[in-house]
């Protein structure tokens, strides 16, 4: 038996095809009685519209493209979850694909998503490629670009105030009695990394603390581990009591270094991170860190796109969310 059509619904309900279409798409007012008849007919016939044909006619797909570097990266998965769950609330599905850091693949994926008539795109990266941004700007669909390390002017994004978050972290460490705080910055001069450094310096100036800074080669666990010798040399020379890292992975790498070299955290030295990746709350000692609200970043990104699509809102260049200090075991109270 063939599937029921919109004509069958109209016939059973005793209304026109255009009335059925208005009820289904909620496009124009329909009398309550006609709406009830249409909905009853749809239920009795178990009518399911052809979504592909419907999207072609309506020029709407109810799809949002989500492009990620790697869905296996935990914080990216949290962003995607936030976007997907909010999208479902508004009857939008996501079309998800990973680029694995390949620029050409990233461009191909975006082109592919446009062929699927996505109504908006959320791009989650760790290294902004200007070519990709230009490609998105050339299209008429709204987009939001999320990057943990880089900022580009005139790009729609959702993030926290990294400078303010680092100021809050240093103030928290100071309140626990630490007066000599070392900051381990990223060797690569990322804009967001620079904001964190500005926050450290501003907090030290406000608290009248001496500044101690070293560079890490990168932001990985390996980079944090390899910074261990340099950190303890400076600790011995300057009596450093706490080291604050630009990223959680660095902090975890350094804690591993301490374990391998018979140093105890926080007894011998306190440690803080930035990001609140899942590992920080289950690692021992649990890591004091700045919580970046990854789920909320994804949720706000999707909600922003939906407002643009449904209410013709314009996207502000940047949405700033709040952050909080996760006070855990790795920073010792020495008051």
TrEMBL record:
Keyword Membrane on entry: no
UniProt xrefs under Gene3D superfamilies: 3.40.50.2300, lambda repressor-like DNA-binding domains
SUPFAM superfamilies, A to Z: lambda repressor-like DNA-binding domains, Periplasmic binding protein-like I
Domain HTH lacI-type: 4-58
CDD domains (UniProt xref): HTH_LacI, PBP1_LacI_sugar_binding-like
InterPro entries according to UniProt: Cro/C1-type_HTH, HTH_LacI, LacI/GalR-like_sensor, Lambda_DNA-bd_dom_sf, Peripla_BP_I
Key words of the record: DNA-binding, Transcription, Transcription regulation
Superkingdom: Bacteria
Keyword Metal-binding assigned: no
UniProt cross-references to PROSITE patterns, sorted A to Z: HTH_CROC1, HTH_LACI_1, HTH_LACI_2
Residues in HTH cro/C1-type domain copies: 5-52
GO molecular function: DNA-binding transcription factor activity; transcription cis-regulatory region binding
Protein name: Catabolite control protein
